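>> received
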Amino acid sequence: MSVLKKPLVSEKWELINSRQGHNQYAFKAALDATKPEIKAEIEKFYDVTVESIRTLVVAGKRRSRFTKAGFIQGKSSNYKKAVVTLAKGEEIDFY
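>> returned
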C-alpha cells in the first residue's frame, strides 16, 4: 500500500509557492504513515530533495442532510496532511 494518496493542489498552496517563495507542497498521506516513509516516497517518486516535513491529522467533517427517507447523518474520514518543504531551487510539476 502506498504511503502517499494524492497531492493537495489548491489556490492556497499555489499562492504560497508563487508569491512567498516557500517552496512547499501538501500531500494527503495514510494515517499510519511516518515522516521518514513520506520523505523516502516523495524523493523516490518526484526525484527531489526534501528539506523538511510537517504532518497533521485533519479531522473529518460531520455532515447531515434531510431527505425523503428522513434525517441522515454521517462523517467524512480523517486523513493525514503532509506539508513538504523542498530544497532551494527544486520544484514539483503536477501538471
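>> The mean pLDDT is 89.
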